[in-house]
Fold these 2 entries.
Entry 1:
Amino acid sequence: MAEFTIADALKLRAGKNFHISDVDPTSTPGFDGDKDELKKEFSKFDDELYDLQERLFANGRAHGDSAPSVLLILQGMDTSGKGGAIRHVFSTFDPQGTYTTGFGKPTEEELEHDFLWRIRKHDPQPGQIVAFDRSHYEDVLIQRVHEWVDEDEIDRRIEAIREYEAELAAKGVRIIKVMLHISQDFQKENLIERTEREDKFWKYDPSDVEERQYWDDYMRAYEDAIRRTDAFHAPWYVIPSDNKRYARTALKALMVDLLRHLDLAWPPADFDPETERERIKNS
Amino acid sequence: MAEFTIADALKLRAGKNFHISDVDPTSTPGFDGDKDELKKEFSKFDDELYDLQERLFANGRAHGDSAPSVLLILQGMDTSGKGGAIRHVFSTFDPQGTYTTGFGKPTEEELEHDFLWRIRKHDPQPGQIVAFDRSHYEDVLIQRVHEWVDEDEIDRRIEAIREYEAELAAKGVRIIKVMLHISQDFQKENLIERTEREDKFWKYDPSDVEERQYWDDYMRAYEDAIRRTDAFHAPWYVIPSDNKRYARTALKALMVDLLRHLDLAWPPADFDPETERERIKNS
């Protein structure tokens, strides 16, 4: 168990009968080694991730619209480490084939449109790996917790999300949805750090403290959204994330698994290698 | 000289009197150490690049439109290593604050618009670092070499580029333009490799061989475009790039220099740290 495997990561799947109280944010399921051992596990997928992403990118270039793409949707409470997780996983990729975007408070223009309007602008292109730092799920989380919309509207949105994700999947987008699950105590530590370090001030917002009062409501909203939107083509994983390195390792393992399943060969030569070699030599 | 400094990188500046024949693509100006020493130099800026980029991103978040941004324009002949250079420099950054895009053969829709139309869509946002793999310069390089447009049109485009870049600079975009300069022999080796390795086939295009016939014309077009568009706010650097690791190290050094000159402090707290700490503790 000082080895963390892809099979361990896959056990973090949260399906239709998911209970968020079953997940201990301080735990590290599948791994009970020490810090140094975790550091090793954290890097072991890097070369394969790089290779798999390049194959995907190459297929996008060679096969255009028929090539698949990947969408990683990351959710989690404030300070759960979404940005850092994306950074660590995506630093193994070629930035030319990836795209990362965040969804904060909607702008006035965005509020005039359906909640999926601003999301659809960022649909992955063939061969691309896209990460969403927060997403359309905010529209059934923060908005539900604060009762900014009624439950009928939540039902409508959940249905719209299911349709949207099914539509993406039908177009060849492989979706993976991940909640980085931290404890309320860990968030407290992280928020305090943001008031102590000059290089963290910019991340702190006094309203984060008010949001903490709604913790249990958020957990209920997450649980319900996860149960109702988990699907074979858009699975949810809930990663215990008080241990950041564990969370990032698990995310890498899930990405490797997803990319392996694309089963991508290198695009074949559409030229005769020998003839071309001669032409180049004579040029 | 086993140490490569920022001052060495800055000497690669190509200004109004630039002669491309003065640059030996096989050379490594400012560095004459061995492979292991170069490997060390290659990594030495990484931590600082990470820190500087995070400051820039934080300023974008905190100050919105008044925050600067960065645009790296990379040009070079086929196989000059533009993609790899971007990958290695940008892997030190947080992908959330960066954006990379390439400009290939224009689509039919793009051809119906002015040549800058497709470029302007990718203007950097405040706090962002953007890389262009090829750019609007293709419109005064490949198009000039093949005489697809006449010289009057080239003059018009050069002027349009100068205006466009000045306009970006006035909006707070810090521009850096880099040509990765390889030799014709090195390109030959690289092209042959693409016909020999299954994982490289997708990068090979038989028309690359035809383009090689126009090498001297390309060099003339590069020289002229560089001379006429170099500016204090949009400087050109020409990096000898037969040695890939040298080229990437030089590019990192230039990026460090640019980011340092932004002289970015962490955004100050817009809250009272002590009060907030108490609120968090009691929450």
Entry 2:
Amino acid sequence: MSSKIKRSYIREILDVIDDDYISFAGGLPNEELFPKKQIQEATVKALENTKSLQYSSSYGLETLRKKIASFYCDKLDFPTNEEEILITSGSQQAFDIILKAIDTKIIVEEPSYLGALASFRVLNKKINSFSKISSLNALLDNKSCLYLISDFQNPSTSSYNCTQRQVLSKMINKNCSFLIEDGAYTFLDFENNFKTPISKNVEKSFHLGSFSKIVAPGLRVGWIRAKKSLIDKLLFIKESLDLHTATLNQMIFDEYLNRNNLFEHIEFINANYQEKMNFMADCLVKYIPSFKFERPKGGMFIYGKLNCDTMNLANIALKQKLAIVPAEVFYLNKKSNEIRLNFTNSTYGEIEDGIKILANILKEIKKEKRSIFLTIFDSLKAG
Amino acid sequence: MSSKIKRSYIREILDVIDDDYISFAGGLPNEELFPKKQIQEATVKALENTKSLQYSSSYGLETLRKKIASFYCDKLDFPTNEEEILITSGSQQAFDIILKAIDTKIIVEEPSYLGALASFRVLNKKINSFSKISSLNALLDNKSCLYLISDFQNPSTSSYNCTQRQVLSKMINKNCSFLIEDGAYTFLDFENNFKTPISKNVEKSFHLGSFSKIVAPGLRVGWIRAKKSLIDKLLFIKESLDLHTATLNQMIFDEYLNRNNLFEHIEFINANYQEKMNFMADCLVKYIPSFKFERPKGGMFIYGKLNCDTMNLANIALKQKLAIVPAEVFYLNKKSNEIRLNFTNSTYGEIEDGIKILANILKEIKKEKRSIFLTIFDSLKAG
């Protein structure tokens, strides 16, 4: 096994911490918002059909694929039919499926999603990165696959605007490159004003979606949207990986969508998340005025910059039972003084307490720096 | 994508056929035997805990891993603790996880399981095969991984006896090779007299297990049993593939095992399968006396030999709405006049009807051969 392959920093943190910790580290949705009762009802109905316990097709349940296709048509202005949807075991599985089917190098945004980077590394893919669209063109060719999170990017929280989307799609097509566009946060738009994916105007595109952030992640159901000729290439790979995504889980979502208005539920989540984000942002402004950030317009994170070594900061915080993510882990090979803070999976009380802990640690670090400076200054004076 | 990568013959058949067909092709368990009511109860209980819908650990649920470890201790005489079990999304996923962690060529039995072969091919692994244990030693070294199904092999239905298991474990250790031992059918022993896995005495071994054949496959929960130091190498790979196996599905099995005696259920399945196997065997003896086979002592298939081109036979049968599998697909690159017949997923009526259809096709083929022979004979006489 490559020495490069280390377990992800975040997973290692999550393994260590327990209920005594305040965690801003993971990307866990607020489980109080799970439509538990509705899922229970959908599950009882799904289990009435014995087929829910039997093997099923690698492609995925047709009725569920039809409903997912309708999200694209009705909500994203992106005409799609059920043959253009492949069900995956969570969106994470899409990387492995797609990158076994196409033989390309990978180009990622910097910073980027850790789970994607891990998947690319396990597959021994050559990874390049870009931070500005203007520098991207030089990296693209017909042996490249660009990986983007277009909406409320993890970790940076930024989204591409309409002009950028046009520039990107033209650039990708001109270079005959592939695009993997990760739509994990597309529907977590606090204004419920969903943007059309870049993929719509890209010839060789894979758009990834998931029920994890908008319903519940524990069922592990996601999907790939691509044109039929590309889906055909993925089917055999998907089959070789796990035969198919759990039948019961697909039928639960299918039943859930039969009985409920998903987009009403999404509005409910977005309202809750926006309020929590604003509360955390207010705490940051109040307790850590030196923290430079913009309030995100969607997603699950606040991302910003501090004047210190944030890896060191995260390690000290962990000893004080607070978990945060130093942004260094989201870069290929670069130091960073940014941090990522998740606001969805803590209570209001935990958010305020956590930010206070962070503020105190920063004060201590500042005091220590000052004391080191004074010692050096004194010794210089004495010398 | 490699041109070698074609969708599996069996999946293609399964895509074509509908309820009008009699299918001896798949490896589907009898869904009438699923403990549906017990799974419904376990699911209701599991869903009471909101954690069932949340992300969970890549390792898998600890309480479930403990129960699986106890199967090894109590039923297979193979001391195992929960740290030696990694939960997978079906047993199929184990191939991908393990073979990304170890860089070896693969040695398979011939014939072998199609799903494993597909996985090895997608990973571009070099595959060698052996048909006799005596020829295996020359193929093994410390860059080899041997893949075996020790009990009621798919498709051949044969098992290794105690002496062979000893010879194999010594041979594998001596060559410092890896072993992947597939236990998919281990508990489908009609005498409920489960054999200790070869893995017990192999230093670098992975033993694969699954709930698919003994409870229900639609939930996609399997596992890898290996020593802790090997499991540690697999964790990061598992995480990169799908983060973790569906939380709910793990909790359903955990609850199911809390409330039910799994091995009583297994005895019930085995009694049913043995009866069905004997019925199909009796039909074969009666209608196709030329079919050479041995009655299997476990598993889900009857395997045997005919005096004809069985790929041609299977294609003719498919036109008459009967699906069987010509054994050619189970070999790396070899013709075969064997066929595999699944008996678990058809009714008694379908079994008799299907064997009669097969018998009639064989008579037609024989008549045709005879008529061609006579035509040639006549023309020779005339000449």
